[in-house]
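Hey team,

Filing this mostly as a record. A colleague (T.K.) asked me to run one chain through the structure pipeline before their review meeting, and I want the input and output archived in the tracker in case anyone asks later how it was produced. No errors, nothing strange. Just documentation.

Input sequence:
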Amino acid sequence: MYDEYELSLLDTEAELESPLDKIEPLTDESEVEKPDPELMLVLLTNPQSQQRMLAARAFCDIQDERATPHLIHLLTDNCPLVRVSAAYGIGRNPAKEAVEPLIMQLNRDFNGYVRKGVVWALGNCRDRRSLAPLTNALRTDIPAVRLWAASALAQMTEVGYEAIVGAIPALIEALVTDPIAAVRSNSAWTIGQLCKELPSNVVYATAIDALIQAFAEDKDLGVRADTKASLLGVGDPRGLQLIETLEQEGWF
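Output structure:
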């Protein structure tokens, strides 16, 4: 789906980080003074890309629905840093009207950092329309985007049963076959979150089987640890019994 040049640029751990990866929600509004929303709204249309980027980033800390149309428009900005900032801003200000523009940008943007931000924003929008693009990204995109797509699919718990069921196959596939351990770990975590919302049916049993297989067979200790955590979190009797048996036999 993406050319070899792009993969060579983004397919290494050192280059998977986005300039906005360190952004975190404010835990105490008294600790840091938030940007002035009125000023930031004006700067979203500033002719200088640096100002547009800073304004879009500001809406990672500001919740203001007035910014949504501007942030959607900035998804197609010429500057990739503006586009990724707009995606993060939408992720913190999710809106139904942003879903289709985000999907369109995910399908056409050749910048992996931007697609990574778009995937995160799509998850936060918690919309049924996000399911297909997120599962497709998990199956076909570069590692950084697959990593975030796996986590974003956990938001399907807020969408409904059909969305949860629709997310499971791609997550199982990633858990079993993805070459990147971090993607497998995120897939294990998300499967655990989704299984908590499922009744005891065939889909649930298949997902638990995949977690059990990964716990017993994955060569990466981190993946096994995350898979174990998911099984413990779900509390499935088969999974709990396997964990106890393997640990008693000294497998781990």
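Quick notes for T.K.: Confidence is low (pLDDT under 50) at residues 1-16, 22-30. The two ends are 39 Å apart (CA to CA).
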